[in-house]
Recover the amino acids of this structure.
């Protein structure tokens, strides 16, 4: 049985996996994990894409984790580790399946993971509440995160990279900030403060109503400072102006604290105020804001003046004496004392205490001092001792008691009086001084020993020299390195270890540094005691004695071989970092130096800027000049200066992309990058373009406002039914309809106002909406009656079911519309429609009879005309063959008769065909236009051959149509193309088709419930003037003489009639000498009524 604990052992420690370098604790866990037990497999078989992604993730200071493979095996970095809690999922989450690690939120995150894996689209959430199990319990945690696809070496999506940041503290902070602001506003109002805010650039300021009333100012938003200063009493005005000007100077620290008197110019009331304020300065030390508060201290001022007089006398005595006073009467052993006496003995001012009470505060170990002082005092008449006392708070203090015996008129001791002084500080100073003197001696003794111990334990060679440069000290590391004794080194032997080629350079650099008392730093090769020659670096600086006088040089000498080797490794590491940044699913760049030079930037970041790779190496302001005047450079400077990471959320940026300056919005992080010394040398910028999200938020807000306006404009009422409290809430309009006194009522009261015939149906509809799995939308129409007037209205109510955080239905929220008038009009309209339908039916019946008669007449008339024409044609042909007189002339007349009769016959035939097209008997069936075209080409094969014509078509659709009419339609169009071809150019005719977009269907006012196809017949013939494009579809209309081109002028009219029969349209587009295009738009399927 394998377990996580069993799999965590040193199975991979012998391998040097580059992607685990500098990866911290997470990298070690990965290195020591039995990955062969998972679907990821052994580490040596991992694809390069997985390794590179892990290298990026583990070296990132941004919280990240990765799900990989079909089991979504989990990896994460050290930055993500704190989010797992102290007693949560770490370290077992490493290598765990995502579904096993996150059961509490799997219902939410799995659809997101599936979307990324199947579509390749990233997802993003900001400040999303996702409770997780950690620290032994479920905790509400807020996250800002993105899911991005990661592809394997075959470019298939194999994993999901999660870049996330826990924002629980930020969300909590924002809530606390809001509460603090509200508390501050309450405190200001409760304290009756006046507030002001001065703009030093305009010399105008804004203030709250209280301050304006005090100064007798108007209620404008901003007031000139001079107008306010005019209300200050004359003796105080200059002092206030000076204090303001001083606060506006950067050197003052911006502090403003002053008391002065104001005189209301309207009421003449005097008021003493205490003003506190602060001036704010930008990075250039220019003041941009000055704000603060005013407190009315008139009453306090008067009381303070009276109190001050009393206190001055008391304080004068206390300050002049600094003592506690006491008097002991020998007669009754009573004691009188000043408050300071009890304060010095007990730490508190106490009254009515006896001598015995005070003895309790004397330290038990010092009671003998008191006894000895009293014994001596009885002989000498004076008492003095310095006992310790223990105050009520447990603290120990030392006091000095000094007293003298008082003699009465009889010359006998009657009392003794004295003083008590706190000498704790003096005693502590005396003891501290003695201790310091003792320690100083010991310190001097230990200093030399400690110096040598510290320097000898250093892994780096250390040395000292005197003012002339003579070496006076080498530590043990340097002695061991050379293999020479300290005496040899001090006598100049150190130069013997330097390779001869580097000796002159090293000595010259050292002597030059000593001559100028500057920094010394040189690289040279040296021979170790082992015989090995290595690169060394020696460096030093002058040091100074306690009086600041130059005393010599102190320096080091270190092995540089490892560092030089490390430079190569560093270069490789930098290359890997560049690759990581380039392949990152988010925009990343690195700025270095105070001028923010662009050191590294991936294509995504450069794309955000609208630039190319040439910006690498340029300062940011030069590379992206449009950022001047925007806040980003100042923020970068602030992060570089303070070392505090800056997080930007949906902040706008004006950027020039594709030569157009537009506003984009970004979430970004500016993080300081430090070197090994902890010094900031650059800033890492990670950014995500959230423009679409911001625009969507704005549009959502606009939509909400538009919805509110639409509700009002549409005279809708709004309502909500609280399912927990069974309470109904409604807008003013709904309240009026129901005749309610308030905007809320019980559910039972609401149901009682619904017509009884519909009441149960309404209740059932609401209950149905609450059934799990049912539609969450409620839509019903029913009558209600006013509780006050009894007026009945028909309302149309709809709502959506709203769920709470627990996933249970919380309320129904929706709108209602008074449709009473509409329903009354509908009933009246139904009656009118029924009446007009009957009339229309009768008229249609009559029209159908008339049409049948007209068709019969046209058919008969044309049929009867054809017969004599046929006979005339036969006889004239016979006459032509038998007549011998003047044969040329006779032949000419006979030709004309034949031509005329043929034209008449064609005309009658076409009229008959046109008439038949008006028939309502339409039998539609599937028609393959490719087959229709094949038949038409076969019919015209002789003409096509004679004119060397080319007719091309392919992939024409199958539509519902009348086959014969489709043959007539395209036969006429191809026939026209052949007929009206250029004399010296072979006809080139192409037929092509495509679907018609819905936008074009709507533009042409066609039925948008149908699907249409467009078929174009394009030729290279003689063409015509476009002004005749409509005329050519009229019956008997011709653009050319009958002798030039044969025809009856009916063919295109038939085409339009055929398209009308099929609910389609036909148009023509042409240019003289450049050919013609006929466009047919026809439904794919017909709608049958």
């Amino acid at each position: 049985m394998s377990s996580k604990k069993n799999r965590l052992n040193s199975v991979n420690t012998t391998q040097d996996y580059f992607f685990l370098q500098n990866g911290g604790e997470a990298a070690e866990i990965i290195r020591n994990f039995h990955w062969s037990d998972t679907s990821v497999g052994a580490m040596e078989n991992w694809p390069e894409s997985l390794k590179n992604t892990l290298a990026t993730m583990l070296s990132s200071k941004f919280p990240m984790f990765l799900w990989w493979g079909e089991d979504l095996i989990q990896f994460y970095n050290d930055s993500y580790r704190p989010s797992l809690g102290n007693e949560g999922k770490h370290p077992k989450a490493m290598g765990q399946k995502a579904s096993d690690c996150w059961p509490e939120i799997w219902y939410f995150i799995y659809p997101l993971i599936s979307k990324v894996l199947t579509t390749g689209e990233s997802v993003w959430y900001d400040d999303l509440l996702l409770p997780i199990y950690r620290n032994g319990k479920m905790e509400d945690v807020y996250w800002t995160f993105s899911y991005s696809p990661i592809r394997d070496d075959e470019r298939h999506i194999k994993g999901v990279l999660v870049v996330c940041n826990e924002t629980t503290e930020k969300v909590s902070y924002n809530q606390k900030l809001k509460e603090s602001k509200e508390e501050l506003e309450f405190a200001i109002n409760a304290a009756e403060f006046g507030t002001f805010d001065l703009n030093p650039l305009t010399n105008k300021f804004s203030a709250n109503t209280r301050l304006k009333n005090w100064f007798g100012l108007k209620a404008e938003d901003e007031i000139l400072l001079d107008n306010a200063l005019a209300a200050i009493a004359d003796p105080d005005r200059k002092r206030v102006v000076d204090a303001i000007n001083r606060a506006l100077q950067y050197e003052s620290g911006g502090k403003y604290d002053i008391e002065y008197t104001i005189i209301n110019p309207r009421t003449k009331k005097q008021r003493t105020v205490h003003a506190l304020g602060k001036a704010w300065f930008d990075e250039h030390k220019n003041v941009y804001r000055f704000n603060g508060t005013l407190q009315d201290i008139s009453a306090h001022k008067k009381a303070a003046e009276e109190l001050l007089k009393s206190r001055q006398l008391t304080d004068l005595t206390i300050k002049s004496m600094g003592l506690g006073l006491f008097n002991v009467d020998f007669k009754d052993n009573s004691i009188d004392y000043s408050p300071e006496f009890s304060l010095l003995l007990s730490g508190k001012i106490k009254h009515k205490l006896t001598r015995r009470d005070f003895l309790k505060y004397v330290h038990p170990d010092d009671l003998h001092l008191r006894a000895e002082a009293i014994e001596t005092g009885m002989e000498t008449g004076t008492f003095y001792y310095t006992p310790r006392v223990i105050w009520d708070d447990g603290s120990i203090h030392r006091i000095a008691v000094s007293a003298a015996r008082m003699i009465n008129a009889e010359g006998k001791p009657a009392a003794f009086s004295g003083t008590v002084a706190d000498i704790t500080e003096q005693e502590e100073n005396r003891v501290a001084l003695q201790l310091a003197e003792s320690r100083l001696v010991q310190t001097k003794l230990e200093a030399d020993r400690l110096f040598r111990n510290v320097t000898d334990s250093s892994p780096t060679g250390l040395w000292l020299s005197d003012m002339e440069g003579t070496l006076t000290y080498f530590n043990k590391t340097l002695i061991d390195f050379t293999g020479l004794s300290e005496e040899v080194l001090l006598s100049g032997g150190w130069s013997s270890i330097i390779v001869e080629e580097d000796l002159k350079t090293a000595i010259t650099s050292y002597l030059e540094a000593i001559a100028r008392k500057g920094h010394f730093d040189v690289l040279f090769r040296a021979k170790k005691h082992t015989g090995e020659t290595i690169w060394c670096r020696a460096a030093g600086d002058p040091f100074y004695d306690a009086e600041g006088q130059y005393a010599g040089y102190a320096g080091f000498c270190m092995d540089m071989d490892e560092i030089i080797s490390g430079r190569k490794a560093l270069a490789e590491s930098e290359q890997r970092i560049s690759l990581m940044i380039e392949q990152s699913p988010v925009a990343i760049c690195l700025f270095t130096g105070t001028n923010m030079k662009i050191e590294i930037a991936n294509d995504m970041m450069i794309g955000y800027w609208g630039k190319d790779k040439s910006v690498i190496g340029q300062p940011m302001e030069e590379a992206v000049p449009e950022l001047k005047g925007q806040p980003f450079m100042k923020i970068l400077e602030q992060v570089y200066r303070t070392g505090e990471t800056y997080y930007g959320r949906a902040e706008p940026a004006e950027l020039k992309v594709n030569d157009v300056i537009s506003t984009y919005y970004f979430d970004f992080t500016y993080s300081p990058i430090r070197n090994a010394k902890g010094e900031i040398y650059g800033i890492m910028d990670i950014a995500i373009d959230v423009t679409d999200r911001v625009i969507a938020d704005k549009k959502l807000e606009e939509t909400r406002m538009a919805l509110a306006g639409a509700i009002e404009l549409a005279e809708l009422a709004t309502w909500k039914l609280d399912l927990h409290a069974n309470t109904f809430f409604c807008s003013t309009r709904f309240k009026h309809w129901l005749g309610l006194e308030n905007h809320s009522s019980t559910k039972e009261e609401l149901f009682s106002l619904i017509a009884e015939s519909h009441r149960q149906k309404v209740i059932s509809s609401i209950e149905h909406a609450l059934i799990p799995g049912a539609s969450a939308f409620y839509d019903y129409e029913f009558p209600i009656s006013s509780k006050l007037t009894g007026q009945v209205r028909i309302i149309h109510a709809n709502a959506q079911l709203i769920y709470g955080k627990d996933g249970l239905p919380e309320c129904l929220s929706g709108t209602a519309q008074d449709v009473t008038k509409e329903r009354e009009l509908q009933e009246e309209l139904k009656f009118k429609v029924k009446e007009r339908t009957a009339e229309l039916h009768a008229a249609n019946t009559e029209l159908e009879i008339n049409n049948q008669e007209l068709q019969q007449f046209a058919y008969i008339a044309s049929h009867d005309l054809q017969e004599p024409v046929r006979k005339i044609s036969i006889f004239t042909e016979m006459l032509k063959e038998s007549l011998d007189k003047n044969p040329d002339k006779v032949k000419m007349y006979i030709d004309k008769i034949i031509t005329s009769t043929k034209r008449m016959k064609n005309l009658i035939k076409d009229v008959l065909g046109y008439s038949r097209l008006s028939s309502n008997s339409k039998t539609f069936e599937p028609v393959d236009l490719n087959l229709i075209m094949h038949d038409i080409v076969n019919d015209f094969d002789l003409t096509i051959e004679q004119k060397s014509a080319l007719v091309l078509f392919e992939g024409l659709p199958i539509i519902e149509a009348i086959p014969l009419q489709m043959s007539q339609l395209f036969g006429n169009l191809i026939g026209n193309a052949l007929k009206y071809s250029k004399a010296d150019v072979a006809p080139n005719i192409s037929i092509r088709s495509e679907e018609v977009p819905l936008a074009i269907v709507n533009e042409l006012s066609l039925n948008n419930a149908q699907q249409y196809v467009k078929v174009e017949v394009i030729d290279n013939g003689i063409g015509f003037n476009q002004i005749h494009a409509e005329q050519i579809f009229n019956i008997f209309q011709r653009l050319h003489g009958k002798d030039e081109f044969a025809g009856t002028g009916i063919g295109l009219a038939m085409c339009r009639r055929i398209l009308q029969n099929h609910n389609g349209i036909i148009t023509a587009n042409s240019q003289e000498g450049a050919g013609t295009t006929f466009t047919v738009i026809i439904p794919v399927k017909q709608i049958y009524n």
About this structure: The radius of gyration is 52 Å. Residues 4-168 form a domain with the Beta-Lactamase fold (CATH 3.30.450.20). The CA atoms of residues 66 and 75 lie 5 Å apart. The longest helix spans residues 820-882.
